[in-house]
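wait is this the right file?? whatever heres the structure
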């Protein structure tokens, strides 16, 4: 779950959960510590690259934001990790990306719901602001 402070070009996100650990909120379960990181909202779906961390409206729950890493871009072929997904290989369609959490055991991501539309992307992660030692 992500809590956003709304602004036109930048937002501060609070990351809850462990799907992006150890990159984001690595101590969420032990200490309840949540990372706060900056999201750039300026042209969020332009210039996406593999490895970018993005905030997006969840396709299965469009009132909630998710944070995941872009794994594949339009035209890329992905081998799906979850047996529950109906296809073993997926070609990411035009205007979509494949996203996954860094902590694959705890992530509800494209391996469950497939590629997400780039129109659902709110912004790209750019900087961990809190805690200061991160």
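ok assuming it is, sequence goes like this
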């Amino acid at each position: 779950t992500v809590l956003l402070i709304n602004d036109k070009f930048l937002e501060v996100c609070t990351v809850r959960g462990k799907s992006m650990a150890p990159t984001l909120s690595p101590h969420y379960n032990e200490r309840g510590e949540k990372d706060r990181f900056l999201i750039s909202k300026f042209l969020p779906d332009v210039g996406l690259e593999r490895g970018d961390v993005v905030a997006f409206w969840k396709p299965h729950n469009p009132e909630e934001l998710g944070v995941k890493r872009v794994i594949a871009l339009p035209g890329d072929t992905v081998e799906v990790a979850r047996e529950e997904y109906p296809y073993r290989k997926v070609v990411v369609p035009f205007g979509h990306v494949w996203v996954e959490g860094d902590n694959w055991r705890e992530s509800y991501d494209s391996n469950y719901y497939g590629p997400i539309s780039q129109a659902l992307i709110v912004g790209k992660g750019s900087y961990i602001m809190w805690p200061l030692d991160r």
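The chain has a mean pLDDT of 78. so i think its the right one actually
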